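Supplementary Data S3. Sequence and structure tokens for construct A.
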Amino acid sequence: MDLITGATATEETQRSARVAVLPVGSFEQHGGHLPLVTDTVVACLIAARLAETYGLFLLPPITFSCSHEHEGFRGTVSIGAGTLITVIDDIRASLARTNVDKLVLVNGHGGNYVLSNITQQANVTEHRVVLFPGREDWSTAREHADMMTTGHDDMHGGELETSILLHAHPELVKDSYTTADHEASHRPHLLVTGVAAYTTSGTIGRPSLATAAKGKAVLDSLVTSFADYIKILDQ
């Protein structure tokens, strides 16, 4: 229950937030040491911290998204980009009917490229949608946590994601993370071949470097970085 909101209608009426925050996760393979819901857990953790810190209306997560690059691994389930667009459009329309006219999309899955298009289109005439965290936000968080890997090399199930789960939900991390490292920094045909062409385990990164302290530092950094986004939405 700590990954979804337990707020009542009365509490949200009292809060009267004009900005909602929607975690967008996935249901896909994360090697043998992290669960299929990893991206959803990460998105929920970030969204909950943002909602608490900035007084936002916290929504439950979208748990299926565009994970097509991970198909071929048992357990991965995807929806189409068009489906994800429609779901988010419907959520925005419903929110607007209760005077919540701005939305933060917290993306936990790097393969959800379509969220960038949704965000750009929504902001043509007014600042209404934010996509968070961005690439720079993740880079800053890695630096703040003294991580040894980069976002490119540590693509999937590596130091970053494993650290976040070790901090917030260590019961979800298998002990095998200490020996699960796999490096595949050169991935020129990823969009064509998918992840399976570059890893048999499903991991690309160095989870052995993960610590709970790094995970906490990442989340703390992201909460700080989000302050600039709120200023933009308020303009």
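Construct B, processed identically:
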Amino acid sequence: MMSHPHFSASAALDAAFDEASAKLFHPKGTVRCSGEPLFRSRAARDLGCILDVDQTVAAWLCLPLEFETNLGPHVPDFLVEYEHGKPWLLDAVEDEESPELKEGAAVAGFNYRGVPRKEIEAGFRLANARDLLRYAHSRTPLNDRIRMLSALDEAGSLTIAECLHIFTEVKPMTGISWMALHQLISLDLDEEMINPETVIRRFQC
């Protein structure tokens, strides 16, 4: 479980928390956010959605720390822990990342990247992630999980339409969404919007 690094309280960090605490962006649910989900912008919330469906992400933390730059102190949107490799500091940015922020993060000992809005919004992944995360606070009961995984073991893959009858305790898309978010099953989130013909498979690490 990620936690905030031990840095002394600062005006910049306090201001970032105050700014984010005054805003609310949907969907409210997260699955890999360690700590309170706090976002200063719509773009940051959208990047959080992308992180939650990135199979290489183990956990992410909002407004994790402050580091010094030539532009003054900066608080990034996220500290992201990947399954392999060093953690990264990420910011959702309008266009291109700031060289000053990248240099400041490097001096502080962190990898840094500013993720442009056009990358966050590219293709269908963001829209599909938003749809799935509506069900982040739900849970697929054990009976339905076993039935779903058994059907996939037998068939290899199934479309969403072919799975609708499997779920008896929760609504089908509630069950499918929760299982996808928790990496029990996988869906293609990039080619098109999730639809009855979307193919479901067992999650493969």
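The chain has a mean pLDDT of 93. The chain has two domains: 11-120, 125-202.
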